[in-house]
Amino acid sequence: MKKYHAPLYDAVSAAAARASARFCMPGHSGSGSGLYASAPFDLTEIEGLDNMLCPTGVIREAEDAAARAWGFKRALFFTAGATSAMHTALAAARDRGSVYAVGELHRSFWGGCALLGICPEIYADEEAFFRTDPRGGTAFFTAVDYCGVKYREERLLSFCDAHGVTTVADEAHGAHFAFSELLPQPSRADAVIYGLHKTLPVYTAGALMCLRSDRDADASAFYRQRVHTTSPSYTVMASIDLARARYECEGSAVYHMIKEKVKEAFPARRAGAFGILQNDDFSRLVLINEGYAASEFVLALTEKGIYPEAAIEDKAVFIVTENNAEKLPLLAAEAEKFVPAQKLVRTERTAREIRTGGMPCIVDADDCAGFASVGEIGTYPPGVPFIKTGEVFTPADAEFIKKNAHMLFGLVNGRVVVLK
Q1: Rounded Cα distance, 94 and 75, in Å
Q2: What is the DSSP letter of 33?
Q3: Whole-model pTM above 0.90?
C-alpha cells in the first residue's frame, strides 16, 4: 500500500505485526479468518496506542490531522456513530442555555434531548427562528439531507453569530465534501458532526466532530468521556485515520472519476420510468418516480444482489463511491427495464394536538389513535420523525404505522408507546 501520513493507522499496524501473544481484550485475541480477517487490527488500549477518551499520543495526533483536513481547530473521533457525537454536542449545549431545533433533525437529536432532559425550542424553519430574539444558547440544524440537498446556511450562521448563539451542524452525510472542489463546501458552523462511514472508506460507526474553538472542543471532549463507550474500536479509528490520509492525497481525483461515471451511466438524466433528483452532491444518486413507492424498486434490486442505500417515499437513494462507480451501468440497466406498480402512500406532517400527563403504556397500532406518543416515530431512513413526543396519533397515523411497521423507528416489537 502507498505510504500515507496516518499516525494511528501506522501504530495499530505495527502493534498488530509485532504481537506474539495477546492476553488482552477482545476475546478473539487477534486470530481468525473469514469474518475475523481484520481481527489482528482489533486492539485495545495497549502501551503506545493511546486512549481515545483522553488522547495525548497517536490518537491526538490523528485527530489533529483530521481537524486540519476538514478545516477546523480541533476534531474528536467517535466509534459509536454520529449519534454519540450528537449526544455529546447536546450535553455540551445544555451547559450553555437554550437549545434551538431549526428545521428537520435526525432522531439522534430528539433521543439525546430526551435522555439529557433537554426541552428544545422548536422552529419549523429558519424564518421562524429569525422572528425570535435569542440571547446565547445553541442552534442545531441539518447541513445536508439524506438525498444530498445542501442547506444554504449563510443567513442562519450570520443570525446566530449576531445573537451569540453557538451553531451545531449535522452534516453526517457530507463527510466527503472536504476532499473535492466539485462537491459542496463543508458547513461553517461552530461544531460539525460527520458520519464518516456513510460516504468514506471507514468502518461502520466511524464518526467525527469538528470544532472551531478550544472552548467548545474542551467541553465536547469532557462530555465524550461520559457519552461514549469506554471500549472504542481501534479498527474503526485506524480506518478513519487512513481514509483521511488517502483522501487528502487522492480525493480530488476520486470524485472527478465518480462524476464522470455517473454521467456515463445516466447521460440523459433519466433511466426508464425514473428521473434523477437535482441535488448538490453528484455522488448521492437519487432516482425518483413521482407517485410510486421506491421501496418496490429497492426490493427488486435487493433480490438481485444490488443493495441500494434507501427507499424514501418515491426516491431510491444510492451512494456512489470509488468502490462501486464501475457498477453504475448495472444499476442503470435495471432501472431502464423496471415497471413500477405500487402507488405511494404518504403520512403528512401536519400540526397535531399536543397532550401531556398519563402513564406510558404499550399498545397495538390499531389502538394508538387518540393517544399521545411517548418518543419519536418515523421512517428509517431518513430518520426524521413525523410524530414527536406528546403529539396525538390520528386514525391515519395508526393505519400508516400498521402497514409500515417494518420500516419505522420508535416502535417496540411493532407496537406503539403512548400515554394513557
Answers
A1: 20
A2: S
A3: yes
